[in-house]
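Appendix C: a fully annotated inverse folding record. The material below is reproduced so that readers can follow the format used throughout the book. The structure is listed first as tokens, followed by the designed sequence.
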């Protein structure tokens, strides 16, 4: 290109695409999506309207992540130590049908123990004490966390702690029971001994139970004998009913499996 032609061009910069990073992301896309879709990392929404239309025109059911993207990124790197993938690239791979949710909202039926632990973490953080990003990491640093509260919180300090609790409400003359965030004022002793320590122990048992359950289910699926299938049903909500629902006994179901 001659000098006269260049003088007539207003923008002389050339934008070169970052093909190297694009190829790196595309190379590991299938592995990352497989991690997102594992039952231990996300759960499928059951509703007919809980689906997303893909680029090719098909519909796929939504899945809600049960953990933070940062934690899942670390999990992916630990399972694939030879792969170098940044957190931003990992998050960019997340497809449309994999959706996020907050641990302190009630839009989806996430675990109450995880929500309570998240609210406790916020109460500790308000005392200007360092807290990890999620409840699982708080368990690893539980001793340092309790020591930090004992050293930095004065005896006469009142800590406001928010927790999900079932309360009685009255609507149009009828009493109803529902879940609501309730604030409680706690002294230093109540906050450290009766709340943080007790809740951490219960949360540790809960997390251990979840990991064991998903690990055993994964092993069962990988070693399933020929002509066998797994019917995985969740009756957690129906167990709270006063009587057995007709949906459990009188409804016909069709079960598909791959031979």
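Designed amino acids, in order:
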């Amino acid at each position: 290109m001659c000098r006269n032609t260049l003088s007539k061009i207003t923008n002389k910069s050339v934008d070169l695409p970052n093909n190297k990073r694009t190829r790196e992301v595309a190379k590991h896309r299938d592995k990352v999506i497989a991690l997102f879709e594992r039952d231990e990392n996300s759960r499928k929404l059951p509703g007919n309207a809980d689906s997303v239309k893909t680029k090719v025109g098909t519909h796929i059911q939504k899945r809600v992540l049960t953990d933070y993207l940062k934690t899942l990124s670390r999990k992916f790197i630990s399972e694939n130590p030879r792969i170098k993938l940044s957190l931003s690239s990992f998050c960019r791979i997340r497809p449309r049908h994999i959706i996020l949710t907050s641990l302190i909202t009630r839009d989806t039926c996430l675990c109450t123990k995880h929500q309570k632990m998240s609210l406790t973490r916020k109460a500790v953080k308000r005392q200007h004490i360092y807290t990890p990003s999620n409840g699982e990491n708080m368990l690893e640093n539980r001793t340092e966390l309790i020591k930090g509260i004992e050293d930095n919180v004065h005896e006469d300090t009142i800590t406001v702690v928010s927790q999900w609790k079932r309360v009685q409400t009255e609507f149009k003359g009828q009493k109803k029971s529902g879940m609501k965030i309730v604030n409680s004022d706690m002294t230093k002793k109540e906050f450290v001994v009766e709340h943080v320590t007790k809740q951490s122990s219960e949360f540790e048992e809960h997390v251990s139970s979840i990991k064991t359950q998903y690990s055993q289910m994964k092993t069962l699926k990988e070693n399933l004998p020929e002509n066998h299938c797994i019917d995985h049903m969740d009756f957690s909500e129906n167990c709270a009913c006063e009587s057995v629902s007709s949906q459990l006994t009188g409804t016909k179901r069709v079960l598909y499996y791959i031979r």
